[in-house]
Amino acid sequence: MKITVKIDNQTYEVEVGDLRDRPIVAVVDGEAFEVWPAEWRGTPAVARRSNSPAPTEAKPAPTLVTAPANSDDRTVHAPIPGVIISVAVQAGDNVARGQELCVLEAMKMKNVIRATRAGTLAQVLVREGQHVRHHDVLMEYADE
């Protein structure tokens, strides 16, 4: 599904992959990201009809994307600007793909940053309360 999102007077084209996949692949202005939504444990919302036309079929999203295209496999980058509100790992920890690394708060929403691959963390470059910018390096994996 293709949508247009406007944040702070900047517009982004977003292509969202299959919502049943974990992780969900979202392509923002040509840059692919993995999204790991929290599992819903409440009562499902009631669907409402819209008077807008049905969405058109978007081209399929890439299937094996694990990080933004301009990052290497050794680093974990901030997908958006915000404040680190918790750090769940430390240097030397072995992590599994999909494991929570830290939580980044942006626009009053908590975003769990997850490991893009299994491995050992060489450095954790953030701490609670730290402000980060888009694409700042949060953590680095050890060479393996």
Number of strands: 12
CATH class of the largest domain: Mainly Beta
The appropriate CATH architecture of the largest domain is Beta Barrel
Distance between the termini: 37 Å
Largest sheet: 4 strands, antiparallel
Q: What is the strand arrangement across the widest sheet?
A: 1-2-3-4
* pLDDT < 50 stretches: 45-50, 58-71
**Number of helical stretches of at least 4 residues:** 0
Rg over alpha carbons: 17 Å
| Relative helix content | under 10%
CATH H-tier superfamily of the largest domain:
RNA polymerase II/Efflux pump adaptor protein, barrel-sandwich hybrid domain
Number of domains: 2
CATH overall fold name of the largest domain: OB fold (Dihydrolipoamide Acetyltransferase, E2P)
- Mean pLDDT over the residues: 78
Q: What structural class results from the helix and strand content?
A: mainly beta
Strand content: 35-45%
The H/E string reads EEEEEEEEEEEE
The coarse overall form would be globular
